[in-house]
Amino acid sequence: MNKNTFPENFLWGGATAANQCEGGYLDGNKGLSTVDVIPAGKDRFPVMLGKMKMLKCDDEHFYPSHEAIDFYKNYKEDIALFAEMGFKTFRLSLSWTRIFPNGDDINPNEEGLKFYDDVFDECLKYGIEPLVTIVHFDVPMHLVETIGSWRSRKMIDYYVIYCETIFNRYKNKVKYWLTFNEINMLLHLPFIGAGLVFEEGENEETTKYQAAHNQLIASAKATEIAHKINPEFKIGCMLAAGNTYANTSAPEDVWKAMEKDRENYFFIDVQSRGEYPNYAKKMFERMNFTLEMEDDDEALLRNNTVDFISFSYYASRLTSADPKINAETEGNVFATLKNPYLKASEWGWQIDSLGLRITMNSLYDRYQKPLFIVENGLGAVDMPDENGNIADEYRIEYLREHIKAMKDAVNEDGVDLMGYTPWGCIDLVSASTGEMKKRYGFIYVDKDNEGNGTLKRSKKKSFDWYKKVIESNGEQL
Question: Which of 43, 293, 424, 451 lies 20 to 30 Å from 21 when distance is taken between CA atoms?
Answer without folding.
Answer: 43
